[in-house]
Fold these 2 entries.
Entry 1:
Amino acid sequence: MATGPFDRLVDAARSGFDAADHKPLLEAWQGLSLAQLRADLIERLLAAGIDEAADEARFLISHVLAPVPLAQALADPALFSWQQAEAVAALAWRRLQRVPLSQVLGSQPFWTLDLAVTPDVLTPRADTETLVEAVLAETGSGAARLVDLGTGSGAILLALLSERPAWTGLGVDLSDAALAVATGNAVRCGLANRARFLRGRWGAGLAGGSVDILVSNPPYIVSDVLAGLEPEVRDHEPALALDGGADGLDAYRDIIADLPRLLVPGGLFAFEIGHDQGEAVSALAREAGLVGVAVKPDLAGLDRVVIGRR
Ligand SMILES: C[S@@+](CC[C@H](N)C(=O)[O-])C[C@H]1O[C@@H](n2cnc3c(N)ncnc32)[C@H](O)[C@@H]1O
C-alpha cells in the first residue's frame, strides 16, 4: 500500500501512464533502442496512411531531442531517456490519429518566420508564399497600409510586414480564436508594433479608401469536395477556413465587390486562388472595374495568385 511521499509519486506516475492514450506505443517501445523505436514509428506512420513517414518520424523525434541532433542521439544511447521516449509517444500518438504535424508540434515555418499553429487556424502552406512573393515584386519600400482579409495565423500579413519595415498592417478575421493566434504570432515575430487585428466580415468594418494593399487567401474549396479531403484537413482544420461555397468562389465575390470602395486609386490587391480558379476570379475582378489583372503560377507551375489594381 502506498504510504510515503515516494510511493504516492510512483502511484501518480503509474495512474498517469495507465490513463494515457499513447500507452500502447510506450508498451511497444519498452526496451527498444532509439534506432529501433524510429523504425517502428516509421512503420506505424506508413500504416496510418502517412506518406512522408521517414521525414515525419525524424521531425517528431527531433522535436523532443532538441537541441541534441538526431544523429548524435542515435550514436549515443545515453542521450535518449525513457522520459523522452514517452514525450515522442505522446506526439506520435496524435500524429497517428492524423492530426496535422503542425498542430502536433505547435508551429509551422512560413516564409522566414516560425508561426504558432492551433486547430483554430489553417496551417500556413508553402503555396501561399507565392502570394507574398507576388506582392513584394509589385511594391517598393515606401510606407503603405496593408490589409489581410481572413488572416488566420497572420501568415501573409506578418511575412509581408517582416519584409517591408515602413508598412503597417491590419489582419481581419471572422474567428476570434484565429485572431488570438495571429496576435500571438505578431508578438512572437517581433512585429506587434506594426500589426493590428480586427474581428470582421471581410472588409465590411473598414473605412472606404483606407487600404493601399489588400491581400487575401480566402476559403476557396468547393463545398462538395470537402468530405473527400485528407483527414488532416477535413477533420482538423477549421471549416470556416476551407469552405468556399457551391462553386468555391463565394468569398471572392464578396471581397471583390468591395475592393473599389476599400482601395485607394492605384491600390494593389492580390488573392490566393485554387489552381483552376484563375479565369473565374480574374473575370470577377475585371467586372468590378479593376485593372492590370494577372494570374501568377506557383513553383509547381499551377495558377496560384490573381493580382491587379484599382
Ligand atoms: C484559407 S484561410 C487563410 C488563413 C491565412 N491567411 C493563410 O493564408 O494561411 C481563410 C481565413 O478566412 C477566415 N474567414 C472565413 N470567412 C470569413 C469572413 N466572412 N470574414 C473574415 N474572415 C473570414 C477564416 O477564419 C480563415 O482564417
Entry 2:
Amino acid sequence: MSDDTDIAPIEPGSDPRESVRQRVFVVGAGIMGSGIAAQCALAGYPVTLEDVSEELARRGLAHAGRALDHAVAKGTVGAGDRDAALARIESAIGLRRADSAEIVIEAAPESLEIKRALFRELEEASRPSAVLASNTSSLPITSIAQELKDPGRVVGLHFFNPVLQMPLVELIPGHRTRPEVVDAARAFATRLGKTVITSRDTPGFVTTRALAVLLNEAAWMLYEGVATREDIDAAYKLGFHHPMGPFELADLVGLDTALAILDVLWDGFRDPRYRACPLLRTMVAARRLGRKSGEGFYVYPARGAAP
Ligand SMILES: NC(=O)c1ccc[n+]([C@@H]2O[C@H](COP(=O)([O-])OP(=O)(O)OC[C@H]3O[C@@H](n4cnc5c(N)ncnc54)[C@H](O)[C@@H]3O)[C@@H](O)[C@H]2O)c1
C-alpha cells in the first residue's frame, strides 16, 4: 500500500467504487474486528469482515451496525454516512477474499499460536504488496512475523475499544518491518482520523503495559478484600477522573484478553509486576469473560444493557 492508493487506477473488470479506496480485509469479527470494520467503512474503504463461521461473521456485521447506530445516536455520524458505511462491509468465511485487499488487519484472539498460523496463511492468501497489520495488544510483532518468508510486510496497528470512539492508534514496527510499510500503516490510520503514537516492539507496547498493571492491581485489591468492586471502580472514576472503573473496563476489554495480556507481559519480562491475580484466572476458567459473555465482574442482563 502506498500513500496514493486513494486514487488507484481502475483494473479491468474491477468494481470502480473500489478504486476510490483499496479494500481492507479484517480477520476476526469479534469486539475489535467489527469496530475496525465500521471505522474503515466510515472512512470510505470497502471492507471484508472475516471469521471462522458464518454465524460469527454475521454477528460481527451486526456489531458493526450497532456501533454505527450508537455513533448516530450520539450525533457523531450522520444516518446517511452510517448507511453508506454499512453498505461497504461484506462478511466472509476463510481468507480467500484477502487477495482483493491492500491492507489486512488481523483481530483474532490474543494468542501467539493463533496469530502465527493466521499470518502464515495470510502471507499466501494476500497480494505480496499488501500490508499485513496485527491489532495485537501485547504480542511482539517480530514474534508474530517470525515464520514468514517476508516478515517486512508485518506491522502492529493497535486500535482501542470502542474503535469508533477512541481516537488513538498505536503503531508498532517489528524488527524487520520495512519503512515503507510503517509509513503506509501510519498514513492509513491517519486517514481513519486517528492520532498515531509509535512504540518499540516490546511486550505490551506503551498502552497495554500501563493498562495491564492498572487492571491487575484492581483485581488483587478485590481478591485481598481491600474494598468492594463498586468502591474500587468509584475510586478510579472519582479520584482520578477515569471515565470507567477498572472492573467496568475489564468487562469491556474481556477478561480472557486481559489475562492473556498479563501472561504475555509475564513471559516477556519475568517481572512480578505482571503476575496475574488468580481471581482473573478463575473467572476466565468459569467463562465469566465480561460483557461478551453476559457476566464478568458485573452482570449484563441484556446485550448493550448497563451492568
Ligand atoms: N478487546 C479489546 O478491548 C481490545 C483492544 C485492543 C486490541 N485488542 C486485540 O484485538 C484482538 C481481538 O480481540 P477481541 O477483543 O476483538 O477478541 P474477540 O474474542 O471479541 O474476537 C476474536 C474473533 O476472532 C475470531 N477468530 C478466532 N480464530 C480465528 C481465525 N483463525 N480466523 C479468523 N477469525 C478467528 C473469533 O471467532 C472471534 O470472533 C486481540 O489480539 C486483542 O488483544 C483487543
